Amino acid sequence: MEALKLEQVVKQYGEKTAVNQISLKVSEGEIYGLLGANGAGKTTTMRMVLGLIYPDEGKILYNGKTFNSELQRIMGYLPEERGLYPKVKISDQITYLAQLRGMSRSEADKSLRYWLDRFEVPEYYNKKIEELSKGNQQKMGFIAAVVHKPQILILDEAFSGLDPVNVELLKDTVKELRDQGTSILFSTHRMEHVEELCRNITILDRSNTVVQGEIREIKKGYPREQVLLRTPGEVSGLESIAGVTAVKRQERGYLLTISEIEAAQRILQQAIGQGEVEHFEIKEPTLNQIFIRAVGESHE
Amino acid sequence: MNKMGTIIGFTFRNKVRTKSFMITTLIIVLLLSIGMNIPYMIKVFKGDDTASGTAGSAAVIGLVADSGNPAAELLKAYNPPAGIPKITLNSYAASDDPELQKALDDEKVQGYLSLGTASASGLQEVTYFSRDGKLKGEVQSYLQGALQQVNAQLIAGDKLTPEQISAMNTPVAIGNKQLSTTGEVEAEPSHPAINYVIVYVLLILFFMSIMMTGNMIAAEITSEKSSRIMEILITSASPLAQMFGKVIGIFLVGLTQIVIIAAAIAANLKLPHNATIMSDFDLNFSQFNIGLLTYGIILYILGYFLFALMYAAVGSIVSRTEDLGQAIMPIMMLGFAAFYIPLFSIASPDTLLVKVASFVPFTSPLTLLLRIGVGSIALWEIIVSLAILLVTTFFFGWLAAKIYRTGVLMYGKRPSIKEIRKAMKAYKI
Fold it and tell me: Which segments of the protein form a coiled coil according to its record (chain A) (predicted)?
């Protein structure tokens, strides 16, 4: 049974359809990626999952059951524009939020201290949000979302605006939560995070689902059309190989676009014929490319 | 219920600890303490004045009149009414009497009064001479009264006794009684003066408290919305629990403030030098009306919730703090009406306006208090008015909850009433 399941969910705002028949499943211990350009319907979908707004059609099931107030205990949410009281002490507001989610005060306090230690900032316990940098405010927002040990965690653009060190820290934490069995619905437009974290994804474009499934499978569906070649010297005649549509000279080698997979072997032959080959790779399409193709195509 | 307790506690703790709350309360207490001690301070300064004045209560002036002038004897024999100190008059033979000149030089007398001839047609040519050419107010009013009576005695001669003459000079008091419709003289519902004071104090206290806490609620909700913590809150606890938790939490804040202010008033009254002030103003604590205070508290609670819920509803619709001022304007207006109608009617609490206003839910809390305190009101009127108020408060509780549920998720421009109504239909509370 899935921790979270959306069936043909539709949401309309007046004449405008915000989300059109989205279906998805998040199992226990899975990070599910929800991708889409701005205004594609990600936030609306998440708000429906949170029970903030009701779907006009379709069903949302949590562990097989429909929405009920018990869920407030087991759900955690990090909104895109993270909200915390700017002028209230961190210890006060995070324990307050945890208490609202059904934790006792002492439990909440213990959990908060654990997380502050985990992020190596125990001194923030008595600070106010407005005293922290933006990245640290975001960490506090993340703690507020996970302090009550939720089973279903909803992260809306969790990593935006963080420096690389903190992104790594948060990524590790998210993975750890996943390994502990938390089901995570994760939205972003940073594809490299999705590729690293998610097993399944849905790409939304202007309210519609355009791509859905396991990342590996999705990638298989797209042709491998790029070859990376690295050689110490120049390789001539690459443009004239049958099936090569473009050649880009890079700092240390070439990036070639091919129209058929057989062309890759011919490129390798050509390169070996002229000298040493340091690196040869038939690249699988990146999610970025898939995203641009999927969203771009539907825009045409 | 448990969550609501958490929300109430959090709201209360955070509000009471803010600097603005502490400073406002401190300023009010300070102003009150100063205000309540002003009568004493005036007394102290006055006392200093008389003590430092050369002549003081025992002012001495000279009197120059022909020997055998009847007015001079009468003037010396004049007894002022109670409370006014008698001025001593020393007789001198003439204005160029060296003794008089010496007394003036030594400031033993402030000046001297010269009487002309006295006859049965009254006094003539009364002149006051002094070195500085000034006739002091208290001296003047004493002489005025004295000369008036002397004049009357001279004219009346032996036909009237001195008692009759002094009775003539007593002003006539005008009594005032209201006629009822049946033409009988109605017993004026006499309210002890302390009732006016209580009503006055409660009116100001409640109005201030309701306006301040109401603004607090609206500002709090709007800032939660604009800082987007609302999205987290609303997924953690039901909007209903949140709204009422907030309203009750702030109610406790307001109550705390009122208790502090009341304690400050009580402490000031207890100060030894203020002990006589109450009686000076003809107030008597034994007339202190517990019933009136109880009504006051009930009306305060109902009035508070009615206004607070409206503030909460408006706060939930606005997304930015900058827009809040404009949005709460109508409620402020209503609040001002509720305050100024009773305040300006405190001297005439039985006008039609007051009667009508005491049944209209928004103005009724304070106006009803006025009528109970210093007007005439039947018990059934109180019950009907309270019932209307109670029903309205519950209705607004429901409506505010609906608006709140809808409003907190609406961002961007302030929605129109039509948009709110449409969106409201989408939610069960």
Answer: none
Q: How far is CA B405 from CA A60, A96, A98, B314, B428, in A?
A: 21, 21, 22, 12, 9
**Strands B126-130 and B111-115, bridge-based pairing:** antiparallel
Q: Provide the residue type at B247 as one letter.
A: V
Point out the residue among B230, B232, B238 whose CB comes nearest to the CB of A144: B232
* Candidate from A86, A88, A101 with C-beta closest to B236: A101
**What DSSP element (H or E) covers B74?**
helix B70-77
Residue among A100, A109, A137, A155 with most chain B CBs within 10 A, to mutate: A100
3-state secondary structure of A171: helix
Alpha-carbon dihedral A206, A212, A217, A222, rounded to 10 degrees: -20
Q: CB distance A86–B227 less than 8 Å?
A: yes
pTM for this entry: 0.73
Out of A47, A51, A96, closest to residue B10 by CB: A96
Q: Which residues pair with B126 in a beta bridge?
A: B115
| Cβ-based contacts of A81 with chain B (< 8 Å) | 228
Which among B332, B204, B338 has a CA at the least distance from the CA of B258? B204
CA distances from B150 to A275, B90, B144, B156 (A): 142, 17, 10, 10
Is there a contact between A48 and A55 (Cβ–Cβ < 8 Å)? Answer: yes
**Other CB atoms closer than 10 Å to residue A181's CB: what's the count?**
12
Quick one: which of A59, A62, A42, A56 has its CA closest to A204?
A42
DSSP of A193-256, one letter per residue? HHHHH-SEEEEEETTEEEEEEEHHHHHHHSPP-EEEEE-SS-----TTSTTEEEEEEETTEEEE
Q: Which CATH number fits domain B59-169: 3.30.420, 3.30.70, 3.90.550, 3.40.190?
A: 3.40.190
ipTM for the whole predicted complex goes beyond 0.85: no
If you measure CA to CA, which chain A residue comes closest to B220? A85
Chain B residues with CB-CB distance to A53 below 8 A:
409, 426
What is the mean pLDDT of each successive set of 10 residues along chain B, which is 429 residues long? 86 89 91 84 68 52 78 77 74 79 80 77 79 78 81 78 75 67 54 80 89 91 86 85 92 92 86 70 67 88 92 88 87 91 86 89 89 85 92 91 80 66 63
CA closest to B3 among chain A residues = A100
Q: What distance in Å separates the CA atoms of residue A131 and residue B178, rounded to the nearest whole number? A: 68
Cα of first residue to Cα of last residue in chain B, in angstroms, is 16
Contacts of B234 in chain A (CB under 8 A): 52
Query: In chain A, how many H helices and how many E strands?
Result: 10, 13
Domain ranges of chain B: 2-29+192-424, 59-169
Closest-CA distance, B235 to chain A, in angstroms, reads 6
Domains along the sequence of chain A with CATH: 4-218 (3.40.50.300), 223-284 (3.30.70.980)
